[in-house]
Structures are given as C-alpha cells and as structure tokens.
Amino acid sequence: MSFGADGLGGMTAEEVKYYEDGVWYDAEYVHIGIDIPYYAGVAAQAGGPILELACGTGRLTIPMVQVGGDVVGVDIVPAMIEQANAKKVQLFPAEQERIEFILGDMRHLRLDRKFKAVIIGFNTLMHLTEDEDLAATLDTVREHLDEDGKFYLDFHMPPPGMPIRQDPNGRYDPQEMIDPRDGRRYVVTENNQYDARQQITVLRFFYQEVDQDGQNIGDEFIRTLRLRVIYPREMDLWLKNHGFEIVEDWDDFEKSTPFTAQGGRRVMVVQAR
Prior knowledge:
Layout: H1 6-9, H2 13-17, H3 22-28, H4 36-45, E1 50-53, H5 61-66, E2 71-75, H6 78-88, H7 93-96, E3 99-103, E4 115-120, H8 131-144, E5 145-156, E6 172-178, E7 185-195, E8 200-210, E9 221-228, H9 232-241, E10 244-250, E11 265-272
C-alpha cells in the first residue's frame, strides 16, 4: 500500500521518503499478513478481473494472482511498482500473464475497463487527508466497477477507549527488521500526535540500527506519515454520497463479528446503488 498525489501527491518530502525504497518497505512489513487470506478469497470468487488501487509492492496482488485471479495493480510511487515487477518475474509464466502493474494516480485513473472487484486495502484510504482526494478516489472506484462488481476496502479504526493521542516523545510498538541486501538489523518504534479538529494523525517511525546483541549502533533516523482517521458514520456518508451501498461490514477479516467499531478495524464490501 502507498499513496501519492501531485508531485507525489500532496505528501511532504519526508513522507515521500517512506515509499522510495520497495525492498526496504517489504522488509519492514514482512510480518503483516493477516489480510492476505481474505483478499485471496476475494480473488478466488470474484468471477472476473480485479483492480487493486495503491497496490504497493504487490503484497496482496501476487497472492490474489496465485489463487487464479486476473489482477491489475496501480500505484503512484515508482519504487513500489519497480519492486512489484521484480516479484512478478519470479512467478510462473501463467501467473505473469494474469498480473499487470501500472504506475498511476488512483484519484484520476481511467483505464476504460470494468472490473468485478476493486480493492483498496491496508489503510490506504487513511492516506487521503484532503476531502477532494477521497472524493476523487471514490469516483475512480465507481468508474471502474462492473455493473455487479464489488468494492472491497479495509482501514484501521481506533476502538472506543483506546487513546489516539500518545506522548510525542515516547516510543511504542517495537518491531525488528532486517535489510535483506546487507543484513543490517533495525528496531523500529513509533509515536503519534493527533489533531482532533482535522482528524489527522501524524505518525513518526524511528529506525535504530542494532547489533546482534540488540545494542544500538549508528544514528537513528525518522520517517513521518500523516493519516486521516475515518469514523463510522462519516464513512457511511462518503459512500452514500458517491452512489454506493454497504453489502458487508465486519470488525475483522475472518468475518467473525459484524461491525461494532470496537475491533480496531473496519472491513467493508460495497456496491453501486
């Protein structure tokens, strides 16, 4: 997943850095996979071509192809598409024929094709901090949906009682990552600041290189992202105003709990009205 806009999209120069290395991105998110079985299942039953917007390095795209899907992945960041294509050439020939990666802006994309499924996964909508960008992206989805096609999306939602605001000087959620090119090890932590009026969370990720014993070596560096917090009735209204109706609404990818806004995630299936 990644998003950019004008001049790589309204993102600051610091935000662009977060997506400028596809190999690094994959190493940082190697532990993320809870959504893969869900979207692979979507591909297996789609019954036609699939469009994935903000596909990143193909983390979801490739598993969807491997279960038989015919998928077009679009991302605006060149490094993401470069890494996705590097993975594509490692697939079986028959799988390569069913996957295409395109460099493009999901707000203004017009492929003159219809799809049985359009997917925006892994919190991508939260990158659309400006209302006009969210509106344009929903228009793109509607434009590319087949008459009976479905739009699949998921994004993070802070459960009630969980503070969005954290100490901006703190460090949270430590994860270890290894750069596969040179074997260097890093501990990644994060913090955030929340602007309640704008519904924008500023996330800061801290990368500290460590040795085999976990001791700090070298200088720490920081990457920053801004994310939009999308509340339940707000999302309902956005979809309604863009001609969609909700078909399925869940707290989790396993579909174990209908949406309550308490699970930390919203997993939706919608269709054109």
